[in-house]
Specification:
- The protein is about 25% helix and about 30% strand.
- The strands form 5 sheets. Strands 9-11-7-6-21-19-14-17-16 form a 9-stranded mixed sheet, with no helix packed on it. The chain has a 4-stranded antiparallel sheet with strand order 3-20-8-10.
- Helix 1 packs antiparallel against helix 3.
- A hairpin with a 2-residue loop joins strand 12 and strand 13.
- It has 8 helices and 21 strands.
- The protein is α+β, with helices and mostly antiparallel strands and about 450 residues long.
Length: about 450
């Protein structure tokens, strides 16, 4: 322990001194396990964690037959109420982030329309660059009439906080406080049980009105599992193209002409309601003659694609991690490289595991920002944007540990450009043959991106 801190164990005169010494050593191990540095400030900060752990060692004055592994397992057990609270808070954070993104896009489109006296004109071509040869910009023309009056929750301004283990007593009060804050902001919250059915992956419903008669939304997810030596074990891209019709003036049977620029073997599949023969022969997405028309304002998936490969050249962002044993400490050098310069990745987080009970790392060099999650024992390397201007970057730090302690590394990011290269030439009202004004946006997100 620290020179100014001591672990004191009070026992009776009839206790077994050998068992007492073993209990004392276990108490000391608990302190070093949950305190990154053994200091008075850190002990106060981790007071509740230490109390919970101590309670697993001694119950009603008697020593429990547990070891450090069991204590860690008991403390890390999930609380159902805590899951509900975290899920609700994350949903509010996502809702506030979506509102800000859409408002930013709306202001950007308004500025461009003022400068050009018009947005995307009739028959203008929209490109979705995703590979090395792609070019162009994906734009979005959105009017948030319903969202502009909404207010982000107070919880959306809070940073991410790690779970504090199993917290049963205060959690009900926290959830009630959270629900009350939503009611004050005009949210429709009936009961806590109704809110508890929402999961962390549920998407908040936000009423958005697109100003263009037709809006095109492209959503793509990447799933990657790579080896630390550079080998690619799994790489998969899954994407969906959605069509949203906002006006009923003969647009229920809208058709669009697309052009694929992909040289890779993407597997494409249209919705059963879409004319498959017309798409395969002319790359036109149109409803079958006997098919059902598009529903007004509904997001309808019309085309989906998949690509799988084990070719390392498909990796959009490579991570190279070199831990080197240096006596009592391990020097870690980690670098990234954007292999597709047309991509622009936003909110990039590279999470590197840290050895347990080794304190905080000493970072000597870092492009971007970093933060240490003491609870999860993870070093999060944050970069706001990775694009052609900063295709490479590195971080160096040292910490006691072994080479395997720093894997697996996980990465999170998002982008407004899909990986599949294609463009939309025209959107045409099938009944009249006239070109229709349309807007578009694209979303690339990470389902899994792990270097093991």
């Amino acid at each position: 322990m620290d020179s100014s801190l001591y672990t004191v164990l009070l026992t009776t005169t009839a206790s077994n001194i050998l068992e007492d010494l073993e209990s004392l050593r276990l108490f000391s191990r608990v302190v070093t396990e949950y305190c990154s540095t053994v200091s008075e400030a850190e002990v106060k900060d981790q007071a509740f964690q230490l109390i919970f752990a101590f309670d697993e060692i001694v119950a009603l004055g008697y020593r429990e037959n547990v070891n450090m592994t069991q204590i860690r397992t008991y403390i890390d057990m999930d609380s159902y109420d805590e899951k509900v609270f975290i899920a609700n808070r994350k949903a509010q954070e996502r809702e506030a982030a979506d509102i800000m993104k859409r408002k930013a896009k709306e202001l950007e489109i308004a500025r461009k329309e003022q400068a050009k006296k018009g947005g995307i004109g009739r028959g203008d071509r929209v490109s979705f660059p995703g590979g090395i040869s792609g070019s162009g910009v994906v734009t979005s023309d959105i009017q948030n009439s319903a969202v502009s009056d909404s207010k982000p929750s107070a919880y959306s301004s809070q940073g991410k906080t790690g779970s504090r283990g199993m917290k049963l007593t205060p959690k009900a009060r926290n959830v009630e406080t959270f629900v009350d804050s939503i009611r004050k902001e005009g949210g429709d919250v009936s009961t806590l049980s109704a809110k508890s059915t929402r999961t962390a992956t549920s998407q908040p419903s936000v009423a958005v009105k697109y100003s263009a008669p037709v809006h095109i939304l492209v959503q793509e997810k990447i799933n990657l599992l790579a080896d630390r030596n550079g080998g690619l074990e799994q790489f998969e891209i899954n994407g969906v193209l959605y069509l949203i019709v906002n006006e009923t003036d003969g647009l229920e049977n809208t058709q669009m002409q697309i052009e694929s620029k992909e040289k890779r073997n993407f597997q494409m599949q249209v919705h059963p309601n879409i004319d498959k023969k017309l798409f395969s022969q002319n790359s036109i997405i149109a409803i079958k003659p006997e098919g059902k028309p598009y529903l007004l304002g509904e997001k309808t998936g019309v085309l989906k694609w998949r690509f799988a490969s084990t070719d390392e050249s498909n990796i959009p962002l490579t991570i190279n991690c070199w831990p080197s044993d240096g006596g009592d400490r391990c020097d870690v050098n980690i670098e990234y490289e954007l292999t597709q310069p047309t991509l622009s990745l936003s909110d990039v987080t590279i999470s590197i595991p840290l050895p347990t009970g080794s304190g905080n790392p000493v970072v000597t060099e870092s492009d971007g920002d970093y933060a240490v999650d003491s609870k999860k024992r993870v070093l999060d390397w944050h970069l706001a944007v990775i694009d052609s201007s900063n295709r490479t970057g590195s971080m160096e730090f040292s910490i006691p540990g072994l080479q395997d302690d720093f894997f697996p590394i996980s990465i999170q990011f998002h982008s407004d450009r899909p990986l599949m290269q294609f463009s939309i030439h025209d959107v045409i009202a099938r009944n009249t043959g006239e070109k229709v004004k349309f807007s578009s946006e694209a979303e690339l997100t990470v389902e899994r991106y792990v270097i093991q």
